[in-house]
Amino acid sequence: MSDNQSVGLSVEQPVEQSAEQATAVLGFDNVLFPVGELGEAVGFYERAGFPVAFRLDEIGLAILKVGKETPGVLLRVEDGIGQRPPPWPTPRVWLEVPDAREKGRALTAAGIEPITGPFSVATGWTVEIADPWGNVVGFTDYRKRPELARA
User: Fold this and answer.
1) Which of 32, 39, 73, 135 is an S-S bond match for 64, by CB 3.0 to 4.6 Å?
2) Which residues, at least 6 apart from 106, have a Cβ–Cβ distance to it below 8 Å?
3) pTM, 2 dp
């Protein structure tokens, strides 16, 4: 018996909710990064501190863990995507870390050069990296506003 059946719900019986409830943004699912070669991409992100949660080389897909959350960074091989050096205008994903300046030192020690040195933001510090295909990830802390940081 599924969890839905055990509480009297089934796929055929929709739960009543307002339009606002039905369309609310609840949080992140996965962040998708297109890459040119899965093994190289996984190696890069492992050095950056992302453990692999799941990997399917035969379809060119890997999911990397982000903290204790179930969603993560999804790497997907895309035909024809080439490597490109920074800087360029592109969307960025920033992830919280306890200390961005220390993360920057750890990245450098792992052979990943940040795009720039750590820079000050309103809540603390941020350091950004770019993978070989131009996807940018920032690591930011809340050292200036610890009351906003995750526990």
Assistant:
1) 73
2) 49
3) 0.82
